[in-house]
Specification:
Length: 116
């Protein structure tokens, strides 16, 4: 195996997952993302302090939240509907509420009417 074969090309290796994420209902499906590891992905990079804002799951959540601004608000909507409910109950009310409030604030900040 050559050196170039020992790593994935970042321009292409997630392309199949991205295509799944673009699939519309009812052909779509849930995409499960697992952050597996030990101390570094769990925030223990600079021990003994735990830096929860540099954990893989948190950084992934931040990146996914940016999709709302990039894929919704860049269209300069006049009205944004946010429909969360049944599938989000697994998050817990506090986590879901924080996500809702963040999206509502961002939409209002972009001068869009919000309907939840």
């Amino acid at each position: 195996m050559s050196t170039s074969d020992s790593y994935a090309d970042p321009a292409f290796y997630l392309r199949p997952v991205i295509e799944i994420l673009k699939t519309h209902w009812p052909e779509n499906r849930a995409v499960n993302i697992l952050c597996h590891g030990h101390s570094v992905p769990a925030g223990y990079f600079a021990t003994p302090r735990v830096d929860s804002l540099n954990t893989y799951p948190y950084l992934l959540r931040v990146a996914l939240a940016e999709r709302f601004e990039r894929h919704v608000l860049t269209h300069r909507p006049d009205v944004v509907t946010i429909d969360y409910g049944l599938n989000d109950r697994r998050l817990g009310l506090a986590t879901a509420r924080k996500a809702w409030e963040s999206m509502i604030a961002a939409a209002r900040g972009a001068d869009a009417c919000v309907r939840c």
